[in-house]
Amino acid sequence: MTHRGSYSAASAAGQDRATAGQGQAGSGLGRLATSSSIRRQRRVWSGRAASWDQHGSAGLGRVTAAVLAAASPSLREQVVDLGCGTGQLSLPLAESGAEVLAVDVSSAMVEQLREEARRRGLSYLDAAAVPIERLRLPDRSVDLIVSSYALHHLRDGDKARLVATAFRWLRPGGRLVIADMMFGRGAARSDRKIIAAKVRVLAGKGPGGWWRIAKNAVRYLLRLQERPVTMAAWTAMLSRAGFDGVTGNSIAAEAGLVTGRRPLPSGPSPEPAAGRQPDRSELAGTSAGGAAAGR
Length: 295
Description:
Layout: H1 9-19, H2 28-48, H3 58-71, E1 78-82, H4 90-95, E2 99-104, H5 107-120, E3 125-129, E4 142-148, H6 156-169, E5 170-181, H7 189-203, H8 207-221, H9 231-241, E6 244-252, E7 255-261, H10 280-283
Parallel strand pairs: 1-2, 1-4, 2-3, 4-5
Antiparallel strand pairs: 5-7, 6-7
């Protein structure tokens, strides 16, 4: 795939291998915790890749529709899909005429997405298995960044760093659109209402649902895999990073949508950095293995 700008799956993956373990803010213990989280997510989502497309639901469909409506990309805009899975967002975005770089923790899911993109003839969709926490893109190189039900798997510090980094990746006027489960750990009445509703739904599914309640309670309370934060926390992160016009809206149940835009410069616009395509040494052998944050 050839983009008009300065990124591709090959360059993103090549940079990941070159910078793995570097550029992660925080203490040494924080970096170790992030690396452990990446390994866990890679294992979990690669194991679910074969059956993931069978897990669709009306609620997930509403979330996907809300992200696509908020994103509304123009023809040939450059889009990055963080935690792409098997392409619930990436495929329709590419079909709308956007140039999409899709990244995910699971190399198995990424390969499924590549195969489906080839089947549909989507030459402007590229995909790479790269940890979200370690993804490297040039500053001011993309027009739109989207993510759906992926970022709650990131550690809280990694969420904030990602939002700040996404601001740098975006061109002036570029947009960030995030959909995810958005609630806290039960301190607020609204959080308890969401948690109680989820428990009721799972309890109604019998023994399998009871097992999921117990499993998810451990993940959620100990912040092992499920690490959602409130919509207010997300909008605060976007505002602190410098985003303008930050909005937050509920979609359905625990699902929320936050959006923000990188402001346009008030004075004469600086010339963007000249994009370059990766050279042969970067393209050689970049099968893009390893990654972070799935669904």
